[in-house]
Every structure is written in structure tokens, then in C-alpha cells.
């Protein structure tokens, strides 16, 4: 195996210890992106479950607030994961596809869902409130 041959894996000799592929992104960046995205999905699932449980019961405001914070955390983790992915692919011949755009749309949607939950938890539902429209 010659060091002058382009290849996707690391060469055996020390002079060619760096990969020569223009599409190479270090595995630590992919691992960090994967971990952040998995944590974002987990936080979104927790927020969704707590948000559904907030529909009834006495402590609905506390549950809605927790759901909103979990969804905002999911949005922040997904945003961080997409930023790490973007920074890792800079300077390479990598191109972004529909899944990357879908990730950014998901960040906006989960972030807005978290804000809506927080706003719903802060809303006053007492009969004397002018927000109810009762009179």
C-alpha cells in the first residue's frame, strides 16, 4: 500500500496519517451530533408526554411549564447538534440535503411548541380575568 494512493481510511505509514478524502469528517463530530440529536429526541418525547398529561388534573400549570421547558431544551439541543454538524462539515466537499433542512424546521417547531406551553401555563383562567372573554 503506497502513501500516494487516495483512500478513505488512514494510511499505514506515519507520513500519511491524515485522511485524503475531501468528504472526511472526524468521527468525534458525528458522535457529538448523534448524541445531541438523541438527547433532543428524548427531551421532546418527555415534553410531549408531560404536555399530554397536563390536559387534566389540578397541577396542570406546573406540568405545562415542565413540558414547555423540556421542549425548549429539545430545541436547544437540536440547534446545538445542527451547529456541530455544520461546523464539522466546513471546509469539505460535503453538501446538505433535505434531512438537514428538516432538522432546522424541527428546531423552529419544537421551540415554538415549548414557548406555547410556557405561555399557556402563564395564562390566568380565573373568571375575573379579562382574558376569558366572559364579560
Automatic annotation (TrEMBL):
Which keywords does UniProt give here? Membrane, Transmembrane, Transmembrane helix
Q: Which residues cross the membrane?
A: 36-59, 66-89, 101-120
**Name by which UniProt lists this protein:** Lens intrinsic membrane protein 2
Amino acid at each position: 500500500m503506497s502513501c500516494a494512493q487516495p483512500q478513505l481510511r488512514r494510511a499505514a505509514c506515519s507520513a500519511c496519517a491524515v485522511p485524503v478524502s475531501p468528504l472526511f469528517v472526524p468521527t468525534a463530530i458525528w458522535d457529538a451530533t448523534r448524541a445531541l440529536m438523541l438527547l433532543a429526541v428524548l427531551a421532546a418525547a418527555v415534553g410531549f408526554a408531560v404536555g399530554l398529561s397536563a390536559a387534566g388534573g389540578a397541577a396542570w400549570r406546573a406540568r405545562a411549564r415542565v413540558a414547555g421547558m423540556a421542549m425548549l431544551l429539545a430545541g436547544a439541543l437540536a440547534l446545538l447538534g445542527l451547529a456541530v454538524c455544520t461546523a464539522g462539515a466546513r471546509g469539505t466537499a460535503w453538501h446538505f440535503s433535505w434531512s438537514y433542512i428538516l432538522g432546522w424546521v424541527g428546531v423552529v417547531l419544537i421551540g415554538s411548541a415549548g414557548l406555547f406551553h410556557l405561555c399557556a401555563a402563564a395564562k390566568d383562567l380565573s373568571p375575573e380575568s379579562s382574558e376569558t372573554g366572559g364579560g
